[in-house]
Write a structure and sequence with these properties.
46% of the residues lie in helices and 3% in strands. The protein is built from 13 helices and 2 strands. Strands 1-2 form a two-stranded antiparallel ribbon. The chain is elongated, with a radius of gyration of 24 Å. The two termini are 40 Å apart.
Length: 296
């Protein structure tokens, strides 16, 4: 649950017969849709995950449940909010009935660190985020990052360099590429193409070109990462620190030149973000100054 949305992931209803269960479930779903489940005072962007909430089904058959029932449910949600454990602050007690994250980025940070620590199966609340029991840590990480890609730049900016490197090494190239595509779509980034011939003078000149995110991701920090993973991390960090730059023509050209400098590192068929852009399109998008001047 966030400040703006509330979602019931699983609804269990005890009833005498199967026919009764179906009818009562449909009625209860309609009634729940009319109840304000967000606790008062919950900050914008915060994420509250509730393990379970038990209550007697309202006896009313109309579209609105009785006012006392709505009040009792709202009071219980407020209690769960105020008593929620905060995974970012330390270990969560096994008996915790709810957990609270400051925002989706903090949730991704905690999820990612639990991936590295092998703790996904030990925390009930990650089962609310996505089913992780039947997938590998890398696949679970890819699903979470892609599902919450809007929060990914801020999350990667909060993680330590050693953590981001270890996490990216868990991802298969195809998973990295899907996350990149989601990042481009979500943030409306200019399309890229990495199809220049390897031995052109332009490629030779670009071989030692620094990527446009070097101010936020030194080469030593990204050592050992493949080109796609390096591009994902660098672009996400620029989105976190200088989003206008990440959308600029200058950034796109320099990133493209850096990618084209050694296309052998790009897996065949894995770079499918977009076709080649025309110079006219780049002119229409405009420019936001030189990368080296950012932060000066």
């Amino acid at each position: 649950m966030t400040r703006d949305t509330a979602q019931v992931l699983q609804l269990r209803l005890r009833s005498l017969t199967a026919d009764q269960a179906v009818a009562r479930r449909l009625r209860l779903e309609r009634q729940l849709a009319t109840v304000e489940l967000r606790p008062p005072g919950m900050p914008g962007g915060a994420v509250l995950l509730v393990r379970s909430l038990r209550a007697a089904a309202p006896a009313a058959t109309g579209p609105l449940p009785p006012a006392p029932w709505r009040t009792a449910l709202a009071n219980r949600m407020a209690q769960l909010y105020h008593e929620a454990a905060c995974p970012a602050a330390g270990p969560v007690p096994a008996a915790a009935a709810s957990v609270l994250f400051a925002d989706a980025a903090e949730m991704l940070v905690c999820f990612s660190r639990d991936v590295l620590g092998g703790r996904l199966g030990q925390q009930w609340y990650w089962q609310h985020l996505l089913p992780v029991a039947t997938v590998t840590p890398g696949a679970a990480l890819a699903r979470a990052w892609q599902a919450h890609v809007q929060a990914l730049p801020a999350a990667l900016a909060q993680l330590r360099p050693t953590e981001t490197s270890a996490l990216l090494h868990l991802l298969a190239p195809a998973e990295v590429n899907r996350i990149i595509q989601s990042l481009h779509k979500t943030y409306a980034l200019p399309p890229l193409a990495a199809d220049a011939p390897a031995n052109t003078p332009q490629a030779e000149a670009a071989h030692n070109l620094a990527p446009p995110w070097q101010a936020w991701l030194p080469a030593s920090t990204a050592s050992g990462l493949g080109k796609l993973a390096h591009y994902l991390l660098g672009t996400a960090l620029v989105l976190a620190h200088a989003p206008a730059l990440a959308r600029s023509a200058t950034f796109t050209r320099q990133a493209e030149a850096w990618l084209e400098a050694d296309p052998t590192q790009l897996a065949a068929g894995s770079w499918q973000l977009a076709g080649k852009r025309s110079d006219a399109e780049m002119q229409r998008r405009g420019d936001v100054g030189a990368v080296g001047a950012v932060g000066a």
